[in-house]
Amino acid sequence: MDSTLHLVIIEDNDDLRDAMLDALSQNNIHVVALDSAEAFTESPDLPQLDIAIIDLNLPGEDGLALTRRLRATHPNLGIILATARSTLGDKTDGYAAGADLYLTKPIALDELRAAIYALQRRLTAGQAMSHVPKFDPRRMLITRPDGAVIQLNARETALLMAFVRAPHHRLETWQIAEVLYPTEDFSKSALELHITRTRKKIASLADEDSTIKAIRNYGYQLCIELHIH
Q1: Domain ranges in the chain?
Q2: Cβ(11)–Cβ(24) under 8 Å?
Q3: Which fold has domain 5-129?
Q4: Count of H helices and E strands in the chain?
């Protein structure tokens, strides 16, 4: 797996662009430096980008317009605006256009490097989480990573919620009984039937037999990750 961080700097000031290029070109960081939005558009051979550092006062298409365009076409791209524009209105416009960070010049290169690494950590965490199904107990549904929805009933929702909250996602049989039958008697066969039905309901999240596993002389364990939404 490629661990290289791919950056593009779009800055029309030659001295500043060269200084940023020198400061950020390190092990595991690949940097391309360009002087305009048009140069970026005309560079089809650029690698898969992780973060773009954009000046607002660019010749031709300005940085704000470029930010809007990139946010629409590259929703997972990290965008840092680096500009001399420092009013509250400028910052508001920058974030509204889709920037993740708005840094006001002059920017210490150490601060810029720290901002890049902080944004990288946030983006990496977000990308990892995007592959985890989202569990919405209030609406009683699970949204799969591909966008498909699994509708649950009240008991299935309560059971999965209990699993998610339990240490190591494990519940003893008596704990499951309290979740499923808080005010009524239960039989072991009825409990097993509910487990089986819940397995079938969430089977598309993994191999059916791997979603909820029985633990001999103990109870059951949820073996998939769910993000409570």
Answers
A1: 5-129, 134-228
A2: no
A3: Rossmann fold (3.40.50)
A4: 8, 12
Of 64-73, 81-90, 131-140, the one with minimum mean pLDDT is: 131-140
Class at the top of the CATH hierarchy for domain 134-228:
mainly alpha
Decide if 129 contacts 187 (C-beta within 8 A). Answer: no
Q: Are 20 and 109 in contact (CB under 8 A)?
A: yes
By C-alpha distance, which of 163, 168, 139 is closest to 152? 139
User: Which DSSP string corresponds to 27-71?
Assistant: TTEEEEEESSHHHHHT-TTPPPPSEEEE-SS-SSS-HHHHHHHHH
3-state secondary structure of 142: strand
pLDDT tens string 47-60: 678 899 999 999 99
For the chain, what is the largest distance between any 2 Cα atoms, rounded to a whole number of angstroms?
Answer: 77
> Is 54 within 8 Å of 105 (Cβ atoms)?
no
Query: What single DSSP character describes residue 83?
Result: E
DSSP strand pairing (101-104 vs 219-222): unpaired
User: Residue 120: pLDDT above 90?
Assistant: no
Distance CA 183, CA 175 (A): 13
At residue 1, the pLDDT reads 43
> CA 87 to CA 229: how far, in whole Å?
35
Distance, in Å, from the CA atom of 37 to the CA atom of 57, rounded to the nearest integer, reads 11
